[in-house]
Design goal:
Elements: H1 12-32, H2 44-55, E1 71-72, E2 75-76, H3 80-92, H4 98-111, H5 118-134, E3 137-138, H6 145-154, H7 160-167, E4 170-171, H8 177-190
The chain binds adenosine-5'-diphosphate (ADP) and magnesium ion.
Magnesium ion binds next to loops.
């Protein structure tokens, strides 16, 4: 099934390419314009702002809470019925330490508030929290794709793997533009998008 999109594209491969190109341009703009500073750090509203920023030209559901239940593998994300309550709870979760921040990130992944694009938007959101609260960000280039995805699959049950994996990749280069752009490319690579380099768009 192909997602309904504003570009009126009906070919899966064509849609994936257009989505990658346009949303990576937006990610670049998010950083270069300074709009990233407007994100409400650690709140669902901040995540929705990022999601809308990246995907508004592509999907009608950009920045909007999903209205369908979704699953990946055999894991069902939060049921639509409980999503509102879950997001309120996550907003109130503490975010002072690295462990608290990752626990909040894991809960946001379990919520999976959007129809698509949760992984990419939420990793930007995570870095915003880390940056503000502990003055570090993840160097995603130091996080292996298969290890990351396995740790995220495991995270609703046990978060030790994802904590260890992200901790060893922390860096103090919180305002480094090249690191941000590279991070976007790696984040997209996790999800199967690797046609374009953000820096070159
Ligand atoms: N089985 C799973 N259990 C929990 N989380 C998962 C599972 N599979 C994938 N994820 C998480 O979901 C993200 C992908 O969600 P998705 O909405 O498709 O985002 P995107 O469109 O950016 O790829 C992955 O990056 C990972 O963090
Ligand atoms: Mg996806």
């Amino acid at each position: 099934m192909i997602l309904e999109n504003k570009l009126h594209i009906t070919d899966q491969i064509e849609l994936a390419k257009a989505e990658e190109k346009i949303s990576k341009q937006k990610a670049k703009q998010l950083f270069d314009s300074g709009d990233i500073e407007k994100v409400e750090v650690g709140k669902f509203a901040g995540l929705a702002f990022i999601h809308a920023y990246l995907f508004a030209d592509i999907y009608p559901f950009a920045g909007k809470i999903r209205e369908v239940n979704i699953a990946k593998g055999n894991f069902g994300f939060a049921r639509v019925m409980y999503l509102g309550a879950s997001l309120k709870h996550i907003d109130a979760m503490p975010q002072s330490t690295f462990n608290q921040i990752i626990e909040k990130y894991v809960e946001m992944n379990v919520a999976h508030p959007f129809r698509e694009g949760n992984g990419r938007a939420t990793r930007i959101w995570l870095d915003g929290i880390l940056k503000k609260e502990i003055r570090q960000v993840v160097d995603w280039n130091r996080v292996d794709k298969e290890e990351y995805l396995a740790a995220m699959q495991r995270s609703p049950v046990k978060d030790l793997e994802i904590k260890a994996l992200l901790q060893q990749a922390l860096t103090d280069q919180i305002d480094d533009r090249a690191l941000f752009m590279k991070g976007i490319d790696v984040s997209y690579y996790y999800e199967g998008y690797s046609e374009f380099k953000t820096e070159e768009l």
